[in-house]
Amino acid sequence: MKIAIVTPHPVPLALGGAENLWWGLQDHFQTKTEHECDVIALLSPEGSFWDLISSYETFSKLDLSAYDCVISGKYPAWMVNHPHHICYMLHRLRGLYDTYPAGLDDSQLFKHPKLRALVEWMSDTGGDYTDDEQIPELFDKLRELKSADLPESTFAFPGPFIRSIIHFLDRAALSPRRIRRYASISDTVRKRRGYFPEHVMVDVLHPPAHRSDYRTGEGHYLFTSSRLDRPKRIDFLVEAMKLVPQNISLRIAGTGPDEERLKALAGNDRRIEFLGYVPDEDMPSLYENALAVPFVPYDEDYGLVTIEAMKSGKPVLTFTDSGGPREFVRDGETGFVTNPSAQALAERIQILADQPKLAKAMGEKALQEVASVTWENVASGLLQTVPPVARIKRARRLKLTVATTFRVFPPMNGGQARVYHLYKNLADTFDIDIVSLGISTDIRSEREIAPGLLEIHVPKSNQHAEAERDLSHLVGDIPITDIAAYPLIGLTPAFHEALELSALTSDAVIACHPYLVDALRRAAPGKPLWYEAQDVEVTLKSAMLSGANAKALIEEVKSAERTSWISAERVFACASRDLAELEGIYGRTTAHLYEVPNGVALDEIPYTDLSRRRQLQEHSGLRHQQTAIFMGSWHGPNLEAIEEILEAAPKSPNTRFVIMGSACTPFRQRSVPSNVDMLGQVDDTTRNSLLAVADVALNPMRSGSGTNLKMLDYFASGIPVISSSFGARGLSIEPDRHFLSSDVGLAEALSKLAATDDHRLARMIEVARQLVEDDYGWNVIAQRFAKRLAETNFTPLQA
Question: Cα separation of 465 and 515, whole Å?
Answer without folding.
Answer: 16
